[in-house]
Amino acid sequence: MRITEAARKLGMSPRMLRYREALGLLPPVREQGSHRRFGPEELSAVAQGVELEKRFDISPAELAFALRVMSEPTVAQAVRDLGLRIGRLQAPRRALDFEKEKALRLLQGGVPRGVQDGPRSRP
Fold this sequence. Notes:
The chain is mainly alpha-helical. Helix content is about 60%, strand content about 0%. It contains 6 helices and no strands. It is elongated. InterPro entries: DNA-bd_dom_put_sf, MerR-type_HTH_dom. GO terms for molecular function: DNA binding. One of its GO terms (biological process) is regulation of DNA-templated transcription.
């Protein structure tokens, strides 16, 4: 079906549907150089995006950016760096950091959990 009919079925204007396409929120056109035709898969994809926008109270542009973050490693890294800098994300703890903290606790006289009672005798 053409864009006008697809937009009507989705409850939006053709302009809004074209906007979503420009943002990359529609599956790619199957045949190069042809006009987009909307079938059940395309309608379902648009409906899923609209549902996400409503559920998370976000705009189509915000959803498109989230997809970009998930699909482009350099964008993901830049967003992760910002998240760390502003305190929205925590740096992942490495195993070496855990072992270092454990060693410092032992040097300071801290007793590891589960060792307080000493060895248990067997019945």
